[in-house]
Amino acid sequence: MAYLLMFVTLLHLITLAMLFIATMEKSWWVWDGMENSDLWYNCRFDNSTGTWLCASSKETEWLQAVQVLMVLSVVFSSVSFLVFLGQLFTMSKGGLFYFTGLCQVFAGLTAFSAALIYTLHNKEILPTSKELTSGRFGYCFILAWVCVPLLLCSGVIYIHLRKKE
């Protein structure tokens, strides 16, 4: 039981960190390594100064939906972890972690929705001045997709997990 509890806690912390990185980092779409776009900014690398020059992304409805869903995913996963810690110390023997599991499942569903919207509507989300065929999805986009099954699996594990002494 102790190993399962440590595994679930570690899985939760890893997925929470991955969600946070996917939401905040600068690599949802990449053009030739010198320009990239994320949920908040469009950036390009300036060779003369050696710095990234960033401008706010054009706020479209699809981009706002992805932003909101990714932030909600981080919030659901954070609340889930805090509730899990509270339940771990206050719940009676034999109790199930239903609320924790449901929050994790909601986090997985919101991350899935955000990644799916970005996949299907990247032409409307990304700057129109750049050719999309010369770019590719970045590592943050991939992290968001990797988080989806991990969040859903950890949510199911929490729902079936019983507190034992």
UniProtKB/TrEMBL annotation:
Keyword annotations of the record: Glycoprotein, Membrane, Signal, Transmembrane, Transmembrane helix
Membrane topology: Multi-pass membrane protein
Keyword Membrane: yes
Main location: membrane
Domain of life: Eukaryota
Gene Ontology CC, one term: plasma membrane
Protein name, entry field: Epithelial membrane protein 3
Taxonomic lineage: Eukaryota, Metazoa, Chordata, Craniata, Vertebrata
